Amino acid sequence: MRFDPTDNWSDLKSLEGMLFFVQRIYELSYDQSDFSEKSLSTPAITIVTELLDAIEVEEHGVIKGISTELQILKEELKEKISNDPIAKTLLGDKKERYLNSIENENGKNLKNTLQVIYIKLSTDKYWSLLKTEIIKIIDQHREKDKIKLLADTTFEFLTTYGYEKGTIYHLIKTIFFNNNNSEIIDSSSLHAFLQKFDLKKTKFDVYFVCSNLFKEFSESCGNFGLKLIESKTPQYNEAIESKFFKNLQSKKSFMLCEGVMALDYLHAMREAESKISLISDLFVLFHHKKKPWFSDYCLVYNHKKEQVFNLNFSTNPMSKLNEGGIDDAKSFFPVFLEYFSLAPESFKRFTRGVELHALSLETKESSSQILNLWICLESLLITGKGTHISTVEKSVKTIVSNYTLREQLTNLYDLLEKWNIEKTNEVTEKLPEIWKEDNQLKTLALVGLKEYKDLAVELLSEMDSYPLLRYKFMKLVRDYQNPKNIEELKRHSERKTSYDIRRIYRIRNKIVHQGVLDNKSEQIVSIAHHYLDTVMNSIIYNKILYENISSIDNFLLEQDLFKAEHEAYISGAIKEGLDSSNIKKTILGPDYI
Hints:
alpha+beta
């Protein structure tokens, strides 16, 4: 989450709903937002496509176990449609009949139903209705759950359609948080933002700096729609263009990818990069010695608007998680080296995972990253019999569920410090000593115990400029003071993890068996990386902090026992109520020290 000033917003109270919507989109498009805070799901139309693909695979008998994947996709689609207000409206009065057909039909009948749903959820209809619903709801600032759902749906829709999240981030920052712009006084600014996404592609020209080696096969480049040049006269921005095309000693060349049809400048850059990357890879297939290089930056021209932008490729998706800086790594690394050890076989598997994790960081090629990350998960978690996917799914689901509540508390405290560290310290210092031992306990006392409501209100009263932060705080109050909500939080975490792991596995299969990778693979890389880090950090945490494991088998057993005991604490709280005597174990689990 970002905390940009809101000085250019005229009336925070009347515009609260719109500001909340904008801040949520801003959070989703910001690379350094915490991964778990984004918590995005897969759009219904994407799941429909995946189901149709799975049916085709089943018909051809390409992959074993596809019936299990079909059933899981059916469950995910039913859940998604039930929670998607736009999809429900577009499916109309027959929604329940469609859902029943998804649940009960197979083969040709299921395919027929899915094809009809796909038509009804067409992008133009979906986007038109979604924009209408957004404008309707933003004045109802008390309907934060609905506004958040529409914000999430907007981001999911736009990025799935093909818009780059960097473009969304830039537009949010420029339109809503640029003090040089006019004042935000009503919903016209939101209208302007939404109208930027017309779902139409534009023609762009994209230039890269490249190796002179491309000259050796310039004719072949031409067959790919690529043109090699040595210089270019500036057209729209002499400073940027002259610097880019400076080539005094002719040590390099420039590659033009002409007439790229794309949704935005960043999308054009990616489309052009994929084309030049392919011909570079094809050349090295025959040359075997040297791969022609090209820059990770480019000039993108929109001649219709007479504009040019100098763009860089975003960082490796493996490095986008909200992680600690070098100081955190420096402080923990010697502790790890001194105290971490496992039995020989487990240590070998762990270090292999470390090696593959490092390889994934070194490449930007999504297929390699996904394959390496999946191999890491398998090597860490498969210790006995059973199918690989079911074992990985069960283990990751358990581990993530065990730590999801702690992670929420940690994330909220981190956000409170980023928002206003002085105020956060001032309020938490008023807590009794027993609740000041660590940041998780401080947050737990504020959101989970009614006796500290006044302290919570003292913090909340200062958050008028950041309704998204206030919502996150109050969401934990709502959930953590009701044991049934805690139980549902963990169940939701397990369902989402199961869907994610299965999706990673299916994409892994597509890469291996069909050589197919979706062009929006960056999100899958981030998901796989998040789960792998969770598993590896949990192993380290159990070994160094608790010293209760000597092997990965020990670790997996401890996770199963933790889960069972934690569920027993939650069940007890549902029956007996939640208070200061049992909230630590109920939220933080049986191993909390």
